[in-house]
Amino acid sequence: MNSAEPVIRCRGLSKRFAALTAVDALDLNVRRAEVFGFLGPNGSGKSTTIRMLCGLLLPSAGEIEVLGCQIPRDAEALKRRIGYMTQKFSLYEDLSVLENLQFLATVQGLGKAAARSRIAELLERYWLSELRQQMAGTLSGGQKQRLALAGAVLHKPDLLLLDEPTSAVDPQSRREFWDSLFELAEAGTTLLVSTHYMDEAERCTRLGILDAGRLVADGSPRELLDALPGQPLLVECEQPRQAQRALQGCPEVLAMAQIGAALRVLVAGTDGRAAIAQRLDAARLDARLHDAPANLEDVFVCVTRQPVQVRP
User: Which UniProt keywords are present, listed alphabetically (predicted)?
Assistant: First the structure.
């Protein structure tokens, strides 16, 4: 495949479950060796989209092309060229680490010599050599994650699809896991990773933000930050909770979050800062407003227009 051609191409992709539209007219292009992130809350359509890309779920409408294969028509031929890793690690817990990989090698049709060499390579690469005889069910979350990744790339797939793969592991394991993903991308593997962690989204070379089944933003993290229409402000005052209540319902406020002893506010419009200052002054709060650098959470709030809720 030409490196300029998209590895994944979707046009008008939709999936309906009775009255529920889980994915709504999705257009998507993912290029070779990209680390493409699907960012969105639970129920936004990330998992449904990935399952359709794998050929595991039939679309209600639209076109899908993955690695030159038309899906669902060529789903069987695609299986040997993709890897798929879910948040619920697909391991046989009553088999050892080695037996899990041996079984997967058989399923993928690897010959005995090739399987032996590839398994030894992956055990070493993902720090599993000393655990090869341990039952998979007794591994820690991070160890299970590394084993699941080894199984997903055992057959050297051109495309790796990962559905919230770090949801059950600690921060250190997440960092190590992402180092492994970038090694794969450097070697030419294309990755599509769904997540709801903002720090993981920042690591991706490109992001698609899903909301209620629709793609509401698409671009590199830098491009999305540069296009942010709102202005983040840091409100410093002795009563941040009172400040938050004073700003509740203000039409210029897109989002608020307490950060330590300060309040982070995302405001819209050119008069947003003045409106915030006026509200705080009316509440007789001594507050100082400072410009703050934008982050992907600001982008997410802007494009999904998630409502601001503050407890009384």
Answer: ATP-binding, Nucleotide-binding
CATH code assigned at 238: 3.30.70.100
Helix extents (H) in the chain: 46-54, 75-78, 97-107, 112-125, 141-152, 171-186, 198-201, 221-226, 240-247, 272-282, 296-304
Residue 310 has pLDDT above 60, yes or no: no
Q: Does residue 148 contact residue 167 with C-beta atoms inside 8 Å? A: no
The tens digit of pLDDT for each residue in 36-71 reads 999 988 888 999 999 999 999 999 999 999 999 999
How many angstroms separate the Cα of 244 from the Cα of each of 250, 268, 274, 277, 293?
Answer: 10, 16, 16, 12, 20
Residue 107 and residue 248 in one domain: no
Structure tokens at 112: 């005995």
Output the pLDDT for position 88: 73
The pTM (predicted TM-score) of the whole model is 0.86
Among 81-90, 92-101, 251-260, name the most confident range. 92-101
* pLDDT value of position 172: 86
Structural domain contains residue 166: yes
> How many other C-beta atoms are found inside a 10 Å radius of the C-beta of residue 172?
9
Query: Does the residue 201 lie in any domain?
Result: yes
Which amino acid is present at 187?
A
Mean pLDDT of 273-289: 91
Domain boundary among 208, 225, 242: 225
Residue 289 neighbours by CB distance under 10 Å: 18
Looking at residue 27, its pLDDT comes to 95
Q: Are 270 and 199 in contact (CB under 8 A)?
A: no
Boundary of a domain, candidates 225, 244, 260 = 225
Give yes or no: residues 102 and 232 share one domain: no
Q: Same domain, yes or no, for 148 and 236? A: no
